[in-house]
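Annex B. Sample input.
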Amino acid sequence: MPYSMTGFAYKTESFNGYEISVKIKSLNNRGLDIKVKGSRDIIFFIDLDVRSIVKEYINRGSVDIIIDVKQQVVEFPLDIERLKEAVKKVRYIERSIGISLSDDKLFDIASSLVLEEKGEVLSQELKDRILSVVRNVIKELKKEREKEGKKLVKDIKARLKSIEKNLNRIEKIKDKIVEKAKSRILEKLKELLGEEYSERAFIEATLLADKMDITEEIVRLRSHLDRFKELLKSKEPVGRKMDFLCQEMLREINTMGNKMPDLSEHTVEMKTELEKIRQQVQNIE
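Annex B, continued. Sample output.
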């Protein structure tokens, strides 16, 4: 069953005094476009890992991921003595170059120096848990895309059935239309050439009527319809293949309409259904 490219999933989890929230939204796109957002101090360490996880589950679509990590328990993560030394260093630089920093700015710079000395901004344990939440949310997104995919498939099947019904009607009446066209052409040629050239008129009328034959177009269109049904059963990404088949089917329908204008009632209806299928296909992975 093909997957839709649209979906949304969200999960919040508590871990060691942290609240980890992950939101994922996906939309249709020609390829796979991944955007990871959140605190720079977190994303810097996990961006590549998050992208790798996404690629395990999703092949196509525009995927936006927002990762938010907050401390639930108020703790002071910095060594006070180290912080005091860092403040002294910043104060010395401040006096040396003749600038004046606010207390907030002074604290930000000093605390960042302490964290750099510590050599660890994001613990491996917390990183692993964040990635675990990301993986679980992507699995939920996959389920949502599958549900939406089932709706798309149901709609497409109904429209394919409508196209097949019109094609069946065309197949039943095409010979009669050809014969009527042949008779009209024959009568017109007899008027132009005269009765003494009736045999020649018959041959010419037959040749012109043969050009109206749409048997090949019907066979190809049925083949495309069968192939489309096969793709609807596939679990692999098939959106691009379906889009190509829509183009091929439109070509056959247009050719039938051009060869036999009397079929316009059916060819117009088929093209209408095919256009709706094509719009739905744009959302299939």
